[in-house]
Model the fold of this input.
Amino acid sequence: MKNSGFAKIGLALVAVVTITQQSRAQLTVDDFSSGAYQKTLKSGSDNNFQFGGMVGGSRATTFVACSPASKCAVVNPFGQPSSFQIRPKTKTTPNVLIFNSGYKSEAFLAVGYGFSSPMSLDLSGSYDRIRVTFDGVDGAVNFNLTVWSNAGSVYSQLGCNFTDPSLQTAFTVDFPFAKFVPGGGSKGADFSGITNMQFLFDGAQGASAGEDWAVTSLQAIRIGAPAGDITCAGGLEADIKTKGVLLGFYRDAGGLVVSFMGTP
Done:
């Protein structure tokens, strides 16, 4: 019996070591352990850069709530605040990006990398997907991932839509590179030289209800690693549009990165 007990302990230790090795083998884009920031809005927008240990050394956030203000009677009838927060771990909670839409309100959050200064990120050869790890969601969520290369001149994108409001425990979502769709009629982004990356989180259910969610990490996953809980299959190629509002970042004629909101 004692030998059996030691064998079980040994197997458990091997399992722990294997999981740890797999975790270290992935490339962490952002674990939200640095660059703490928070914002609350009832209407309008907020653009901000945070700096720290994320890939590229900076994170760009564009947060939009009830915009334009002329539509607030429809998209935020009770005048409720929407918010997001990036905060480091505590004794009881992990590092996390938290989003609260607000009751019967619409809000959107774009999270970008490489917009303070372009990255030079090689995801070809060793990696085959981007993984988003959620702590949980309590409503339908639509979100898109866009990657740019060639100095931001070409891009590819992939989107996911959660319609099940019961995902209130941690789960992972994979964005396979093979499923990305080239944008703008181009050949698409070159994953051996990613200069910019953006996640856009959108309220999929409209103003009838507000969703809340939390993300604990963004990672590039190595080829051969186990699949995540959900794999995005993608859809029709289109620009990132949310109910007539175009969110994102671009480089102006002088090379300056600008976050913008407006009709396409």
Q: What stands out?
A: The longest strand covers residues 127-137.
